[in-house]
Specification:
By secondary structure, the chain is mostly helical. It contains 17 helices and four strands.
Length: 400
């Protein structure tokens, strides 16, 4: 029996690599797509939005506005002279220009409103964000001033000031107290940071995700193409010859599965090695867990391809179905995009697919650092898929 299985496996390998194009799909394309998709992510973080600032007042209050604007993490303040700043804005070197006019502090201290000039590029999202940052900065800088004016008004309602000097002194004391109170105000929002180990365990690694996802995609399609081998042999009449030999259907299908599984494991080993050496992907701390997931995924996939081969009629039909079904199941299984981006109903429904369990198990290893015991449920589900697909394939298998 084992000799027959080995002979059938070797024969299928020769058939599969009878065309030179198979090398392209076996290693070249998977490597190219893995590298391109795994290195096409966004930068480490968004860059600060440049805001041009012209301070024509040169007062303590105008300096406070600029300082408050500089405290905004998303804003990069660039102080320039008016003519230079307007030229920079015209050249779209920055999305916004803030001009603080002369007399800014004196007008505000007198209790009157003053307009600052904010020029923004049209239809620009960064310009809108810069405008919000400017409004927040002005609000923070003028909060003490507003509190002092309110204090003076309330004091005048209780008892009018005897002179302008008394009113000014009261205003100055109120302004100083307001500034002190604002400086000592307790934080209403407490910002905490998780420990570094937690950050690393829950961070998203684009290269690792795409390396695992493209491995599943490009190995899954050839596994489904096992159906084409059966269709080819059926049309060539070689399966009819098995009728006169003492070869059970289960033995023949086991030989087909063994051969394709062996090739698939070689392909997966090459892609794991590429991800490790070229892209720096850490495939987990447990080689045993990784091997278990790859073997379980391979069994489920090649069994599905074998079952599919008992339904298709021609080799071309098998090829088309293998590519379309492989791409669709890989996409729905989260191999291209994280499942968190899918609607909730879709995230539940896709657990009926073997690719979902394979991707979940591999991401548990490469992204979450989990071990053998943690991926046993995913591996068990994949083996269950393999058993069901194999039994249906044996039941449906026909020599003609």
């Amino acid at each position: 029996m084992f000799t027959k299985i080995a002979t059938i496996a070797w024969k299928d390998a020769l058939i599969r690599f009878s065309g030179r194009s198979e090398i392209l799909f076996f290693f070249v394309l998977p490597v190219v797509f893995t590298y391109l998709l795994g290195t096409s992510g966004v930068a480490d973080g968004p860059s600060a939005i440049p805001v041009l600032v012209v301070d024509e007042d040169h007062s303590a209050l105008s300096a406070g506005v600029v300082a408050a604007l500089e405290e905004a993490e998303a804003i990069e303040v660039r102080r320039l002279a008016r003519a230079e700043a307007e030229a920079e804005l015209a050249n779209e070197a920055a999305p916004a220009l803030l001009i603080i006019p002369a007399g800014f502090e004196a007008t505000l201290l007198g209790g009157r409103g003053v307009a600052v000039e904010l020029q923004q590029l049209p239809n620009n999202g960064d310009a809108q964000a810069a405008g919000q940052a400017v409004l927040a900065a002005i609000g923070r800088a003028s909060a003490a001033l507003e509190a002092a004016h309110n204090s003076v008004r309330e004091a005048e309602r209780v008892r009018p000031f005897a002179s302008a000097g008394e009113r000014e002194a009261y205003f100055n004391r109120s302004l100083e107290m307001a500034r002190q109170q604002l400086a000592e105000a307790p934080a209403l929002v407490a910002v905490t940071q998780p420990d570094q180990a937690t950050v690393q365990a829950n961070s998203f690694d684009l290269a690792a995700h795409q390396s695992a996802g493209q491995l599943i995609t490009w190995v899954f399609i050839p596994f489904l193409a096992t159906s084409g081998l059966l269709a080819f042999e059926r049309t060539q009449g070689t399966l009819r010859r098995l009728v006169i030999t003492p070869t059970p259907k289960a033995t023949f299908l086991l030989g087909t599965i063994t051969g394709q599984l062996g090739l698939g494991l070689v392909q997966m080993a090459l892609l794991v090695g590429f991800g490790t050496v070229v892209m720096g992907v850490n495939w987990g701390q447990s080689p045993a867990a990784l091997l278990l997931m790859l073997v379980a995924f391979g069994l489920a996939s090649v069994a599905l391809g074998t079952m599919l081969g008992t339904f298709v009629k021609t080799e071309s039909q098998a090829s088309s179905i293998s590519v379309m079904a492989g791409m669709a199941l890989a996409l729905l299984g989260g191999c291209w995009f994280p499942l968190e981006l899918f609607p909730e109903a879709a995230r539940t429904a896709v657990y009926a697919l073997p690719t979902t369990w394979a991707m979940q198990g591999l991401t548990d290893l490469v992204l979450r650092g989990r071990g053998l015991a943690d991926v046993l449920p995913e591996a068990g589900m994949l083996v269950g898929f393999a058993v069901v697909f194999f039994l249906v394939g044996v039941w449906r298998f026909r020599y003609e």
